[in-house]
Amino acid sequence: MKLHRLAVSGFGPYAEREEVDFDVLGADGLFLLHGDTGAGKTTLLDAVAFALFGKVPGARGDVKRLRCDYAHRDTQTYVDLELTVRGRRFRIKRSPEYERPKKRGDGATRQQAQVSLTWISGWTGEGHSRIDDVAREVEGLLGMTAEQFFQVVLLPQGEFARFLRAETAEREKLLEKLFGTERFLDVEKWFRERRKECKREVDQLGLVHRDLVQRVAEAAHEEPPEAGGDQEWLSSLLKRLDEAERDADQVAAEAGAVRADAEKDWQEARARHERVLRVRQARRNLDRYAEVEPSLREWIAERDAARQAAVVVPAQERSVKLDRELAAAVAHEVAAADAVQALGYQGADLRGDGERLREEAGSLTSLAAEAERQRVDQRRIVQLDKDVAATSRQLAALVTQLDEVPPKLAAAKTAVEESAEAAARLAQVSGLAAAAVELPRVDRAFREADDARRVAVDAQQKARETLLRIRRERLDGMAVELAGQLRAGHECPVCGSAEHPSPAQPMLNAVTAVDEERAAEEDQRALDVRQRAEQESQKLEARLGLLREQLGDRPPAELEREYRSVAASAEQLESRQAALAELEDKVQRALDQRGTLERQLTEARTQHAQLVEAVEERGARLEEARGDFPDVVTRRAHLSDLADALTALATRRAAVAEHEERLADQRLEVARLASDAGFADVADALAAARPAAAVAELETRIRDVEKTRTAAESTLAELPDVDPDAEVDVTGTEERFRRATDRATEATTARTNARTRATRAAALAEQLRAAWLRLEPVEAEYAELDALTDVINGLGQNSKSMTLRTYVLAARLEEVAVAASARLERMSQGRYRFVHSIEAGPRGTRGGLGLDVMDDYSGQQRPAKTLSGGESFLASLALALGLADVVAAGAVLDTLFIDEGFGTLDAETLELVMTTLDELRAGGRVVGLVSHVEELRQRIPTRLRVRKAREGSSLELTA
Fold first, then answer.
1. Who has the most CB within 10 Å: 295, 357, 477, 908?
2. What does the pLDDT look like over 230-247, one tens digit per residue?
3. Which of 791, 789, 800, 793 is nearest to 841 (CA)?
4. DSSP, residue by residue, 400-434
5. What is the per-residue pLDDT across 470-502, written as a single tens digit (0 to 9) for each?
6. Which CATH number covers residue 135?
7. Owning domain of residue 881
8. Contact assessment for residue 745 and residue 275, using Cβ atoms and an 8 Å cutoff
9. Any residues with CB less than 8 A from the CB of 246 and at least 6 apart, and which?
10. 253 alpha carbon, distance to own chain's centre
11. Are 686 and 313 in contact (CB under 8 A)?
12. Helix (H) or strand (E) run with residue 81 in it
C-alpha cells in the first residue's frame, strides 16, 4: 500500500480544505508530522483510516463526531485519499454522517454518510458508491481488517506499551483481533457442542437402559437392582421366571381335571331334572286341551265360513265404487246442460252444432287480430299528439337560448387572449420585479464591501510598511546577527578571517530573522484579506450595474403593481380556457340537440298522418264483422265458448250411459259369486265375511291348541318310564362344579400370568441387551471426546493449560517476539531481546501469552513492566514493528506511520531509533513520524510546512 495524496475538509480540527502530497513528502522515504499538542497530527492518520474503513482507531472512533465544530455551514465534511494497492491506483472519497445548520431558518439538518471509489489506473472495472461494496473491495485489496490496519500501518506506541504490561486476558483480546483466530474459537466451540450432544446421547441411552431395567423388574414382579443390572442379574431373573411358569402349568392341569369331573356330574343331574319337568308339563297341557275342545269346533266353523265369503267382499266393494262414480257423472251432466242453456242454445244436435260454431269462430280470427291492432294504433295516435306538442315546446326554448350565446362566446375568447398575453409577459415582468427587490440589498452590500475593501487596503499598507521597517532595521543590525554566528577558530562568512577582534555587540530590542518572518506572514495575511475584499467589492459592483441597467428609470412600486396584475391575469389562463371550452361544448351540444328535435318532430308528424289514415280504413271492416256484439273479439269468444259447451255436454251424457251399464253388470256378478260360495243371498255372504286379521287370529288360536296337544302326547310317548314326582339334586352338583371351576380359573390365571411375565421379561431382556450394545460404544466415544475437549480447552491432560486458540496465539506471539527481538537488540545495542513464555500465570491463569525481556547485561529474564520509560518506548516500537512484519506477511505495505513516544529518548537512543527507521525505508517503503519533539524537526529538513489547522495552532509536514 502506497499513499499519494490526502485531502480533508471540515474534518476534525480542519475547518477548511487542506491537502497533503505524500509523493512529495515520501520522496526520501522518511517524513515528519510535527506540531503542538492539538495541532491535528493524529487527525491526518485518522483521515487515512476513515477514508479506507469508514472509522477511526481507538477511543476516537467510539465518539463518532468527525465534523469540525467551527467549519462554515456551507463547507462539506469529507476525506479524499488517493493510493496504490497491488498495482491498482484508485481514489476514495468518504463523508461521515453529521448534523449541519440549515441554510434557511433555524435548526439543523442531517447529512447522510457517503462514499465513492474510483479507479485511476491498473484496473478497468467500474467504481463503487455503496458503503458495503467499498468496504469489501478495500479489505480484499489490503488483505487485512480495520483493526489489523490500525495496528500494522498506524503504529500507536501507547497501545503497545500497554500491550507489554497487559495481563494474559487483555493480550489475548488484542492478538485475536490481529490474527483472526475466530476459526479456532469455533473449533473449541464445536468440540464443546459435540461433547454436549454426545453427553445428551449417552444420557438418553442411559435413561433408556435404566427404563428397560425397571420394566424388566416390573414384568418379573421384583425390585430393580440398585447397581443398574447386568448380564448375571438378567440371566438369574429369566431362570426364576421359567421355573415359576413350569410350576403354574402343573397346578393348572390338576385343577382342570377336577373341574371336568364335577362338570360331568352336574350335566347328568340337569338332564334327569329336565326329563321330569317335561313329563309334568305334558300332562298339564293335555288337561287344558280337554277343557277348550268345544270352543275349538266353533272356531273352525267360523274360520271356514269367512274363507268362503272372501271372494264376495271385493266384488261388492267394486259395485259400491261404480255407484259413486255414476252419481258424479250425473252431476257433471247437469252442470254442462246449465252452461249450454246460459249461452242461449235452443238446438238438439249438440256435436253438429258445436262443429259449425267452431268453424264460424275460426273465420273471425284474422279480424280479431286487426281489432287488437286497431286499439294499439289508436293509443299511438294519442301519444304522438302529445309528443309533437312537447317537442315543439323544447325546440322553441332551445332556439331562444342559442340566440343569447354569441355575446357570451365573444367575451370568453377575449378573456382567454388577455390571460395568454399576460402569461407570455410574466417571465419578463417577474425578472424586473425580482431585480427591483434585489437592487436595495445589493446596493447596501456593495457599500459595506467597499468599506471593508478600504479597511483591508489600509491594513495591508500598514502591514507592508511594518515589514519594510523591520527589514531595514534588520539590515541595520545585520552585523550583530552575523557576530552572533561567529565561533572562535572558524572563518568569518563575510571576510574569511579566523580572528574576530571586535565583533558587534547585541543591542536592546534588536530585530531578528524571526521578527522579519512574522512580519512577512502578517503582510501576506493582510494581502490575502485585501484581495478577497477587492474581489467581493468588484463582484457586487458589477451586479449592481447590471440591475440598474435592467430597471432603467422605472420606479420599483410601478414594477411591483405591474407584476401583480400580470401574474393575476396569467394565473386565470387555465380557468378561462376551461370556461371557454365548456361554453363551446355547451353550444355544440345545443346545436346537436336542435337538429335532433327537428328530426324527431318531422318523424312524429309523418307517422301521425299515416296512422290516422290506416285506422279509418280498418274501422269500416270491423264494424261490419262485429254484428250484435260490441266488437269482433267478443263475438269470436262467444262462438268459441258455446262450441266448447256443446261438446262438453255431449261427452257428459255419453259418460252417464256408460256408468249405468257397468253398474248393472257388476251387481249381477256379486249375486253370482254369493250363490257359488253357498250362501242364500249377498247379505248372508257379507255377514259371514271377516277381516283378514280376524281370520289369521282364528288360524293361530286353532294351530296353537292342536300343537300343544300333539307335543304333549309326543313327550309322554318319548318318556314312558319317567316318574313326574321324582326329585333330582341339581343345586348340589352345580355348587360343586362352580367351586371346581373357580379353582381351575385361578390356576389358569396364575399360569397365564407366569407365562406372560416370562414372555414379557424375555422380550424386554432382548431390548435391554440391544440397549447395552448401543450404549457401550457411545460411552466409549464420549469418554474419548470428553478428554479431547478438555485438552483443547486447556483442561484435563493438557499440561500447559492452554486452549487451542491460546496455543495458536502463542505460536503467532512467538513469531512476533522473534521479529521484534531483532529490532530491539539493534536499538538497545544488544542489551535486550524478547522472550516468549508459555508458563501458566499465578492463581490458575492460563499460560502461553507471556512476554518477558532478557537483559544480557545481568543475564536475567525480567518482566517488561520493569523497563524504564525510554526502554519501554524502544520495546514498544520494536514490538509494533515486529507485529507489523508478522501480520503483514504477504501484504505489501509501502507506508507506515509511527505515532508519538520519541520524547522519552535521549540523544544516543534517538540516534539508534532513527537508524532503525532508516532501515525501514529499504525497498521504497515510506515511514511517517508523528511527534512534537523539536529535535526530530531539526533532524528532518523541512520541505512542506505550515498547514493552517485552526486558530492558534499550526502543523508542519517535513521531509
1. 357
2. 777 778 778 888 888 888
3. 800
4. HHHHTHHHHHHHHHHHHHHHHHHHHHHHHHHHHHH
5. 877 777 676 666 666 666 666 676 666 666 666
6. 3.40.50.300
7. 168-180+801-889
8. no
9. none
10. 75
11. yes
12. strand 78-85
